[in-house]
Structure formats: structure tokens, C-alpha cells
Amino acid sequence: MDVIPAPVLRPSPTEDAVFAALASPVRREILRLLREDGPRSVQDLASRFTMARPSFSEHLRVLRQAGLVSERRDGRRRLYRLEPVPLAHVRDWLDPYERFWRDRLSALRHLLDDTADDTADDTGTRAHSEERP
After folding, report:
1. 25 and 63 belong to one structural domain
2. Is there a domain that residue 70 lies in?
3. Does 61 lie in the same domain as 20?
4. pLDDT, tens digit, for every residue of 9-53?
5. Domain, as residue range, for 100
């Protein structure tokens, strides 16, 4: 019988771009500012960071290419706005892992509860971790 290798599931290039964009603390902070303050000009956003303007522009470019922000011209100003759809995709991607760990922690809680019950049965009293007044 031939063994068929399991398919390698790789994120799409778009997902790779989103995760790469989110890897930077500077870019996560830009997203936080846009989430909390709404659309902001490049000047307003850049004023909150101590870095050269070309470096800051590069962060905005990465966010724009990942679809996490959009840019709109308002006269001479460029306004940036948070685009939530890629973040919803990240949440959807992470959801099975959250369920996995929730199930594991629930199983651990049940195991510890059962162990505590067994200990109480052996000693005739239930062990408590709380202090009594």
C-alpha cells in the first residue's frame, strides 16, 4: 500500500503579509492608534514615534500592502484608516487554536478536580487551597 503524504497547508500570500505586518511592535501600535483614534494623517501618526520619516513611511507601506490600513487623500494630507477585515481573518485562523487550548485547560481542570476529590476521599476531608479566617 502506498503512503500518501499529508498536504502541507501554508497560509496564502495575503495571510503571510498580514502576519508579517503584525510581527512589528511599531505596526501594531499604529493599528492600535487607528483603532482608538480613528482615521489619522501621516503627520499625526508619525509625531507619536521617534523615528525617521522614511522608516515610518515604510511601516505604513507594509500595513497598506497587507490590507490592514487604507489611505485617502484629503487635499495635501494623506489620511490612514484601519481596515478590520484582515484582522477578522487572523481571528478566524487563530480560533481553532484557542478552542484547542480551552479544551486542554478544561481537561486539566477536571483532572485536578478529580484528584482533589480522590485526596478528600482518602483523608476523609476535602483539601482547600483557600485560607480560612
Report:
1. yes
2. yes
3. yes
4. 555 557 889 999 999 999 999 999 999 999 999 999 999 999 999
5. 85-123
Asked whether residue 19 falls in the same domain as residue 77, the answer is yes
The residue-averaged pLDDT of 109-115 equals 84
In this predicted structure, the answer to whether residue 122 has a pLDDT above a threshold of 80 is: no
> Is 74 a domain residue?
yes
How many CB atoms are closer than 10 A to CB 98?
Answer: 10
Question: Are residues 49 and 111 located together in one domain of the fold?
Answer: no
pLDDT tens by residue, 95-104? 888 888 888 8
Alpha carbon distance 57, 83 (integer Å): 18
| 57-66 own/partner pairs: CB under 8 Å, 24+ apart | 59/24, 59/26, 59/27, 59/30, 60/30, 62/17, 62/20, 62/21, 62/24, 62/27, 63/21, 63/27, 63/30, 63/31, 65/17, 65/21, 66/14, 66/17, 66/18, 66/20, 66/21
Which pLDDT score, from 0 to 100, does residue 16 have?
Answer: 87
